[in-house]
Design a protein that fits this description.
Chain lengths: 288, 219, 371
């Protein structure tokens, strides 16, 4: 046996995937500590105006340059990303809870509950997301929570659909038959077998929703309907920098935009890797 | 007595999988139902286990006419029939350890205190080692999982057993072992058996009486 | 005439024609899975066998004995935590275990090794007709140069698939190359080739425009077989092709596979737990237990007289309902924790201390100290 040469299988596929996952992890490893730690610890004033240094291109002193009143854009971007990520995270959480509850109820109970819930979902879905979101923020005063509500109200719909479909497919499984035959009540089947079965999918949908929610927040802020203009958010930063773009100053819009795209790609990449692990076919490959 | 009278059932009312099927099973009797794949015998097995509401016809179980099926069947009637399905992979919740899989009916019926000793006894009976009980379905083979599914079907001591192609995915040795477990249980409790399958050799050897699908349905 | 290697014609009459090299030569094939904490699960250990043209080998054993892993290894479909050792060489010397994914995808799967799947309903795409799937497979496997050969296909169903088939050129198709290679002509050729492929698997042409769910189990199996035969691969690999089918259908499926093997000089490796199907199809039976081939014997001797020599194989046959219908006592060992001696010793009535300490080697077709 000693002379046996063992060859690993499927190495190439594995390594490209690992590289991608590592890149995503690296992006998040820079961004998350930055937005979590810099604002509370650094004691720097993101609003510090320095009119003498307005619209400076990126330099060692100001790596992202400065804006039209001389505020440091790196700092503004960190604060903006912090707000955007917070809104994205909370909104995704709220939307997932609502969506999972509605979807699971509709899927598990069926009948009239299902019909009513799904028609409501269809009706809301037929309204353009941004329009519905604008309606919600318009009712309240600008601020973080109206934006969260606006995002949550528009985004639980897809989760409800995913969860319902998943629950319906699980409901037809033989193991639900076996549970019913073993005396399980409707409630027990739902809580013990159906909902735990959809939680990974719902979690995946929640993670994928974070970048979605960030973009929604940025769009609202860009339109001037989101967060108040003085509060740095990625959307506000792009919005205020629009004017300087026409003057040929690229950095005030470029860096906030980049910080919107990078976490989006990183989160989507990580979610993709997670989905690959969830995929039951891949799991069953490991069985003998 | 388990009686299916003039059962028409299926998933689409316009094209029922089963048309006018008659079947009666006496207590303690073992009946093999032989039919080609896709003939609707699994649907009939689900009706017999009170898991599927027939479009027409009546099911009588121990003298009571069954009026509700699936969740609407009274729990005492539902649990009087134990079911084993063809594909153990689909019949086992992938998140439950085999120990919990077998104990689940006891918990669902509020008898969780009995679970420990009963699961141990059944595991021994179906030939599942103690180390396998702490595994999840994807960590065991089809044969081992089907053993657990059979244990689950027996855990509430049903008076009737419905085995829908129980051994179709299994090798000869596991087939013989599981059939022996079912027969031991029946000898001990006098439970009746409806074994649905497509292998005449197996059903003839296993069951006291074998009927062919064509003999029980209307044409 | 078949454009296959010259000696294949003999394969039509004799299962083991002398003088030709084996279609598949598996030597000392082992597969293990890396588990957390540096553990290994030895799924297959030291499997050695050869397959001659026209030969059918049935690999039998209970679920979890490693036979499906062996099939996955031959197709290069093992998961990422698998490691292999040994070799599995095709007739042209290509080692399936050492080949990279690109080679396997472009020149092996479908072209040199055809797969007959376990559940045809799941193998076929539900949203497309059988014809569409056959035509796509023909196009994929043959490439754009197919048009010339395809016109021949109805008359000479065994027409090779051009350069893709690894140098197995066509002897008949080249002469009648059409002058106009218009789109319409290529399409017609493709349709003819797909029809011919269906015909080879006895799939009725009238059902070609149906979707998989409109087919009975038997026809779905034939459709899947037709897809496997398109590439005219010299080796067919059937992984539990009869699971869940009823007896009549099992016999028909097995007979059809048998016909494709013997008449066309292909080799068939069928992996199954169904001993009746194995008896019907196999020239050779290999019994696998706990990752090892414990017995490999001619089917006639194995199922008839003198019968199997390994106690596990005997037990397996005795478990059949038409025989004693008694199970082999005990349970198979865990592949991650195999005993030092014979893996079957714990369940074997004839086991002695030697069995428990020394691993019996596979000699003269059986791995048992007492055979």
């Amino acid at each position: 046996m000693a002379e046996q040469v063992w060859r690993p299988q499927g190495r190439t596929r594995r390594s490209t995937r690992t590289v991608r996952v590592r890149a995503c992890v690296a992006v998040m490893a820079v961004i998350v500590p930055a937005v979590l730690l810099v604002p509370p610890l650094a004691q720097l004033d993101q609003q510090a105006v320095d009119l003498a240094a307005k619209l400076q291109p990126p330099s060692w002193e100001h790596p992202f340059g400065t804006d039209d009143v001389g505020r440091d854009l790196l700092l503004r971007c960190v604060y903006g990303l912090r707000v955007s990520l917070f809104v994205g995270l909370v909104a995704a959480l709220v939307a997932t809870v609502i969506g999972t509850a509605v979807g699971a109820a509709a899927g598990a109970l069926g009948g009239w509950t299902d019909r009513v819930a799904m028609r409501a979902v269809d009706t809301l879905s037929s309204v353009p997301h941004l329009l519905l979101g604008i309606f919600v923020v318009a009712v309240f005063r600008p601020g973080v929570w109206p934006v969260v509500a606006s995002v949550a109200v528009t985004h639980w719909l897809s989760t409800a659909r995913i969860v319902r479909a998943e629950v319906m497919s699980l409901r037809g499984r033989a193991y639900v038959d076996a549970a019913v035959s073993g005396g399980a009540s409707r409630w027990r089947v739902a809580v013990r077998h159906l909902v735990p079965g959809v939680l990974p999918q719902a979690g995946l949908a929640a993670v994928l929703m974070i970048p979605h929610a960030m973009w929604h927040e940025s769009a609202l802020s860009f339109l001037g309907l989101g967060l108040p203009a003085h509060q740095a958010s990625l959307g506000n930063l792009v919005q205020t920098a629009r004017g300087s773009l026409l003057a040929g100053d690229w950095w005030p819009t470029f860096f906030p935009g980049l910080l919107l795209i990078l976490p989006t790609l990183a989160i989507a990449g990580l979610a993709g890797a997670w989905r690959d692990r969830l995929n039951p076919r891949r799991r069953s490959e490991l069985t003998l | 007595m388990l009686e299916l009278d003039d059962i028409t059932a299926g998933y689409d009312r316009r094209a029922p999988a089963v048309r006018g099927a008659h079947l009666s099973l006496y207590p303690g009797e073992s009946l093999g139902l032989l039919g080609p794949s896709g003939c609707g015998k699994s649907t009939l097995a689900r009706v017999a286990a009170l898991l599927h509401r027939p479009d027409r016809g009546t099911v009588t179980l121990d003298g009571r006419t069954v009026t509700g099926f699936f969740h609407r069947a009274p729990r005492s009637l539902r649990t009087a029939v134990g079911v084993v399905f063809q594909q153990p992979r689909l019949a086992a919740d992938p998140r439950l350890r085999l120990r919990d899989l077998v104990a689940e009916p006891l918990r669902a019926t509020g008898r969780r205190t009995e679970a420990g000793p009963r699961v141990a006894e059944l595991a021994e009976r179906v030939g599942l080692g103690a180390d396998l009980l702490s595994r999840r379905p994807h960590e065991v083979s089809d044969g081992q999982l089907q053993r657990a599914c059979l244990a689950r079907a027996l855990v509430l001591r049903p008076r009737w057993l419905v085995c829908d192609e129980m051994t179709a995915m299994l090798d000869a040795s596991t087939t013989a072992a599981l059939v022996a477990v079912v027969e031991d249980y029946r000898a001990e409790t006098g439970a009746g058996l409806l074994a649905v399958g497509h292998d005449p050799v197996l059903l003839d050897r296993w069951c006291g009486r074998t009927v062919h699908w064509n003999e029980i349905v209307k044409h | 005439m078949t454009p296959s290697p010259p000696a294949t014609g003999a394969g039509a009459d004799a299962p083991r024609p002398g003088g030709t090299g084996p279609v598949l030569h598996v030597e000392d094939l082992s597969v293990r899975f890396r588990m957390p904490a540096g553990r290994y699960v030895e799924a297959v250990t030291g499997a050695t066998f050869t397959l001659a043209p026209g030969e059918s080998l049935a690999l039998v054993g209970e679920s979890g004995c490693g036979k499906s892993v062996l099939a996955s290894a031959l197709l290069g479909l093992l998961p990422g935590n698998a490691e292999t050792a040994g070799s599995a060489r095709l007739a042209d010397g290509l080692d399936l275990l050492a080949a990279d994914e690109r080679t396997l995808a472009r020149t092996v799967r479908g072209r040199r090794v055809g797969l007959v799947p376990q559940s045809p309903a799941a193998h076929l795409t539900p949203v497309r007709t059988v014809r569409a799937q056959l035509e796509e497979t023909v196009r994929e496997l043959a490439g754009p140069g197919y048009a010339g050969h395809a016109t021949e296909a109805p008359e000479a169903p065994e027409a090779g698939t051009g350069p893709a088939a690894g140098g197995r050129g066509t002897s008949s198709g080249a002469s009648d190359r059409p002058a106009r290679r218009g789109r319409r002509h290529r399409l017609a050729a493709l349709r003819a080739a797909a029809r011919a492929a269906a015909g080879r698997a006895a799939f009725p042409a009238s059902h070609l425009d149906r979707h998989p769910h409109e087919l009975s189990g038997g026809l779905a199996q034939r459709a899947a077989t037709a897809l496997a035969l398109v590439g005219d691969a010299p080796l067919l690999l059937a992984d539990e092709p009869t699971t869940g089918l009823d007896r009549d259908l099992v016999e028909r499926t097995v007979d059809e596979l048998r016909a494709h093997t013997r008449a066309d000089g292909r080799a068939l490796l069928m992996i199954t737990h169904d001993l009746a199907a194995a008896e019907r199809i196999a020239d050779t039976v290999a019994v696998m237990y706990a990752g090892r081939i414990v017995e490999i014997a001619p089917a006639g001797a194995f199922f008839g007289s003198p019968g199997p020599r390994h106690p596990y194989a005997r037990g397996l046959l005795d478990a059949l309902p038409e025989r004693a219908f008694t199970p082999v006592p005990g349970a198979p060992p865990e592949l991650g924790a195999l005993p030092p001696g014979c893996a079957f010793a714990a369940r074997c009535a004839a086991a002695d201390p030697l069995c428990r300490t020394r691993l019996p080697a596979l000699t003269e077709g059986v791995a048992c100290h007492h055979a």
